[in-house]
Amino acid sequence: MDVGIVSYGAYVPRYRIKPEEIGRIWGVDGKGMGKGLMIYQKSVPSPDEDVVTIATEAARYMMDRVPEVDPKDIGAVYVGSESHPYAVKPTATIVAEAIRATPAMTAADMEFACKAGTAGIQACMGLVGSGMVRYGVAIGADTSQGAPGDALEYSASAGGAAYLIGSEKVIAKINKTLSFTTDTPDFWRREGQPYPLHGGRFTGEPAYFRHITSAAKMMFEAMGTTAADYKYAVFHQPNGKFPTRVAAQLGFTPEQIEYGLLTPNIGNTYSGAVPLGLANVLDHAEPGDRVFVTSYGSGAGSDAFDITVTDEILNYRRDNAPLLEKVMADPVYIDYGTYAKFKGKILMSE
Amino acid sequence: MSTVAREWREIPGRYNLEGTKCENCGSIFFPARDFCPKCRRAGIGKISRYDVCRRGKVFSFSIVHDAPDFNNMLKPYVVAMVQTDDGVMVSAQLVDVDLDKVAIGMPVRAVLRKLSADGASGVIRYGYKFVPDE
Ligand SMILES: [Zn+2]
């Protein structure tokens, strides 16, 4: 049985802030900071947007593209995020209700820093492959926070993408998935705390680079491939710099990662990052294109996927929902005051 | 808790613009009702679920400067009467829009947004708002 992507949808909020505007407030060279991180602007959610609304928008776009799929045939909905609006009360049930998939289905929220979305794809692959469900939905979405003045404030942004996993009319077959996981405390947020902490330099080599290159090399070995066998590659992108460097280390060219690298324009969407990058690749994909995907979640682990786009994409109604380029066009730039208000950083009276 | 229960019953309408239709005379009701005032007894048993179209056009609008608590963060904001493509009038907030570009006849579509929340620890209410449909 071929298990893979039957449909997808992606959404990014309309507002943007630039690093020079953030730097202006904290008295640092924001523009230089942005250049170092390769982040030239980041998305900001409207005050009435959160992971529920972002995941719903992405999931509705996903369903709009497969009008022949009955939402009642969806047997599982998983939403991966580290910014679920409730600590207890699943995001997934709200999204499932909004796409009419309830009630004969299972649902859960997932959390694994920035790779909860790809973990959801793996869970759905297992359920579909074993015949337990006909379709599964996996969503990665976040509205992440960086502490004011912290380096993360220049990158933490908002967005998400949804994937319908199944075995019928698959537009992109997932040839294989595997993971590399260890206990590495590079980044964390304790229960009840508004902002995460990170291990500074520790977030680079032993965390992001080790896990991504390990998972990627395991995939090359399992499939007997090298970077040259793929048309496109998508890597987790906490900034623009890390994925560019890890791609080069693995032998990928800048052309191969171009479509999958969105962080320079929208910031780090955390659980949304790899799902959004893959959505932009699929927006441009043609039959036969092979795609290499490796996510990364702090704490720490990487999920790798080897994907082949099928002929079915020619029948797929991609235009029933806006392509990501259109979703990201026409942003509204806001100043730091508006940003602080939108993100709830201003202490209001009760 | 009684308001939580009442709002829970409103979820199909608020998330998916779910209304009802009288199969006897064709009237569409949104919010949903299970009695047709036109057909009265003749409509009994003929009221079925009807999903109002999520796309439409601005029929009328006004800009709100004095906002209730939750919308403080969004003011000034637009409230619009939207005529959906199947002819139903729905009133809701119009968001992600430049105030000087709002116009009668503007195409819009329904999205799910946060409507309000009971403070920092209470329930969050989600429901439809409209955004420009380019
Ligand atoms: Zn009637």
What this model shows, in words?
Chain A is α/β, with parallel strands linked by helices. Chain A has 2 domains: 4-172 and 321-342, Peroxisomal Thiolase, Chain A, domain 1 (3-Layer(aba) Sandwich); 175-313, Peroxisomal Thiolase, Chain A, domain 1. Chain A has helices at residues 19-26, 30-37, 51-64, 91-98, 116-129, 204-223, 241-249, 254-257, 263-266, 273-284, 324-328, 336-342; strands at 4-11, 15-17, 42-44, 74-80, 106-110, 135-143, 158-166, 172-184, 187-188, 197-198, 232-235, 290-294, 299-309, 332-333. Chain A is globular, with a radius of gyration of 19 Å. Chain B has a domain at 53-132: OB fold (Dihydrolipoamide Acetyltransferase, E2P) (Beta Barrel), CATH 2.40.50. Chain B is 10% helix and 42% strand. Chain B is built from 2 helices and 8 strands, in the order ααββββββββ. Chains A and B meet through helix 3 and helix 4 of A and helix 2, strand 7 and strand 8 of B. Zinc ion binds at residues 22, 24-25, 27, 36, 38-39, 43 of chain B.
What characteristic shape of chain B results from the CA principal axes?
A: globular
Structural class of chain B: mainly beta
User: Which two chains touch over the largest interface?
Assistant: A-B, 22 and 19 residues
Q: Evaluate the radius of gyration of chain B.
A: 16 Å
CATH class call of one domain in chain B: Mainly Beta
